[in-house]
Amino acid sequence: MTNDFLLLLVWRLVGTLINLLLYQYAHKLRLEKMEKSKDLAIIILAAGTSSRLGNITKQLLKYREETFLKITVKKALALSSDVFMILGYEKEACKKELENFNINILFNKDYEKGIGSSISFGIEHTQNYKNSLIILCDQPFVPIEHLQSLKNAMNNKTIIATQYENSKSSTVPAIFPKIYYERLLKLKEDYGAKSILKNEKCISISLEKKYSIDIDTVEDMKSGITQ
């Protein structure tokens, strides 16, 4: 066996070892990326019947030429690629409005039971995420900067909630760490997460009161909002 042959064999072994190490490193990076992508899921609640608005489908109301659905989805996608839209009332019309967005569209068959039902249904689908941000579709005026502030404060342990100025209570939009999922899964009917927000210590991010409007009645419909 010549020295040249031995040298060639060594170089091939070294090359094989380098390729193996590069593969393992790339695999590690992929796993880290996947783990990172599981940090935050965003649940958008858009299943309500809009009963106090008569025959108007609240989710399809427009502000500055865009529906509440599109406004909310665009803000959510600016924060995370893992967006879960919970539909119920007029689901087909709402689904059509969202066909150009790469999001998870889910139908809550029990949507008529109330917001608690939709929250628990959403959390069923975000079990693999360390945190879930819950947003209401009927609050299109909440600025993206506020949602980003909630995300920036996320620590995987504490609820990060919204507190409107001159108010003592915390509310949604709010980020719930995984340790609260079991309680969120137990929510039923029309109670929402108020009891959890009221009884748990939260990090509250202040937001001007003018952004607190949610569209529940005809009186809430301001200039510039149309169907």
How does this model look, in words?
- The protein has 227 residues and is α/β, with parallel strands linked by helices.
- It folds into 2 domains: 37 residues; 189 residues, Spore Coat Polysaccharide Biosynthesis Protein SpsA, Chain A, CATH 3.90.550.10.
- 36% of the residues lie in helices and 21% in strands.
- A 7-stranded mixed beta sheet has the order 5-4-1-6-8-7-9, sandwiched between helices.
- The radius of gyration is 23 Å and the shape is elongated.
- It starts with a helix and ends with a strand.
List keywords for this structure.
single chain; 227 residues; alpha/beta; Spore Coat Polysaccharide Biosynthesis Protein SpsA, Chain A; 2 domains; seven-stranded mixed sheet; three-stranded antiparallel sheet; 7 helices; 10 strands; elongated
